Amino acid sequence: MIRYMPLPSVCAIAAALAALQWIAGCSEKASEAATPAPSVKDQQVSFASNSPQLAVLATAVVQPAQPLARRLTGRLVWDEDRTVRVYSAFAGRVESIPVKLGDKVAAGQALAIVGSPDFGQAQADVRRARADFAVAQSNLERLKDLTEHGVAPAKDLQAAQADFERARSELARVEARRRMYGGSETIDQRYVLKAPLTGVVVEKTINPGQEVRPDQITSNAPPLFILTDPRHLWVQLDATEQDVGMLKLGQVIELRTPALPNPFSARVEMVSDYIDPSTRMIKVRAAVDNSERTLKAEMFVTAHIENEASQDVVVPAQAVFLAGDRHYVFVADGPGRFSRMEVVRKAEVNGKVNVQAALKPGQRVVVGNTLLLQQLLETAAGG
Fold this sequence. Notes:
The protein is α+β, with helices and mostly antiparallel strands. The protein folds into 4 domains: 39-67 and 310-382, conserved putative lor/sdh protein from methanococcus maripaludis s2 fold; 71-81 and 229-306, Elongation Factor Tu (Ef-tu), domain 3; 84-115 and 196-227, CATH 2.40.50.100; 117-188, Helix hairpin bin (Helix Hairpins, Orthogonal Bundle), CATH 1.10.287. The chain is built from 4 helices and 24 strands. The protein has helices spanning 7-34, 117-148, 154-181, 370-382, and strands at residues 39-41, 44-46, 59-61, 63-64, 69-78, 84-86, 92-96, 104-105, 110-115, 190-194, 199-204, 211-212, 225-228, 232-239, 252-256, 264-271, 282-289, 300-306, 313-316, 321-323, 326-334, 337-349, 352-356, 364-366. The strands form 5 sheets. Strands 1, 2, 4, 19, 20, 21, 22 and 23 form an 8-stranded antiparallel beta sheet that branches. A 6-stranded antiparallel barrel has the order 5-14-17-16-15-18. Strands 6-13-11-8 form a 4-stranded antiparallel beta sheet, with no helix packed on it. A hairpin with a 2-residue loop joins strand 20 (321-323) and strand 21. It is elongated.
C-alpha cells in the first residue's frame, strides 16, 4: 500500500532542498572570490598561493651542458707535402735499379738507369744547337767586318743578327732541358731517373728490362717509385654535417687503431669547404707525428673528438616553445611567479635541448602547460 505524505510535509522538504542548493552556490562563489586571478606584469605571470592552476605547472631543473663526443672513421695516408711519385720523362728500357724498397735516398740520387733513344735525341739536340750557335756567331762577326768596310749591305748584317739570336735562344733551351733531366755531355742515351727529394722508397713497381713511357703519367698507371718521409703521416677522416661545429683548424684529436694498444694524437689541418653530394660526408685531414715509425699508411683509425665546454645549459625539450620566430622558456622566479625568457635553441639529444640563454644551472623552468602562461601574457598585452 502506497502512503502519501501530507501536503505541508512535501512543501517543507522542497524548501529545505532549495535552501541547500542556495548555500552550496554561495559557497562556490565565495571560494572563487577568495582566489584572485593571476596577475601579469611585463614578462612575468604571478599566481596566488592557493591557485589551482599551479598544480598543472610542472617544473624541471636546468642542467649544465656536457661536452659532446663524436667518433669519426678514417685511414692513415702519406703526407703529400713530403711525398713524390716518380715517373720516367723519356721512353726506354730499364737497364739497372741501384735502389731497393725501403732504402733511404737523398735528393738527386739515382733511382734507375734507363736506356732511352729519346734521351739520346735530347743529347744530340744540345750538340746540334751548339754547332748552329757557333756558325751563327761566326757569320755575324764576318758580316760586321764586311759592313764596316762597305762590302756587304746592312740587310745582310741584320739577317745575320736575327740568325744569331735564334741560335742562341735554341741553345739556351736545349741546355736547360739537359740540365733538368741530367745526363752526360756525350750521347750515351742513358737517362738517369733521379730522386726529386730526400725520403724513403716506400713503393717500387719497376724491374730491370721493363719498358717505361712518359705517357704512364696520364694513363693512370702506377708510379715507378713513391718516395716519402714516413715519419710524417696524414689521417683522412669522414665527418657529417653535425660534426662540423666540433672541428677547428689546429685542434688536437685522439686516434685509435686496432693494431696498436695505445691511442695517438693528430692535429687538424684542413676541413673541406663542401659536402660530397653522393656520400653526404665532409673530408677532414689531420697531421700525425710518426717519429717512431710504428704507424703504417692505409691503417684504419677511429678519431675521438669532443667539443669545448661552453656556457650553454640543458633543459627538457618540452620547456622550449616557439612564439613568432623566437624560442622562449618560462623560468620559475619564486612561489607562483614565472618569467618568460628568450633562448637560442641548439641541438636536441634524447629529449634534452642545449640552449644559449641567461639561465644558470639549478634554476627551474616550466615543462608543462607553458602555452597557458603564454596565453596569459598575450591576453594581457592585447588588453
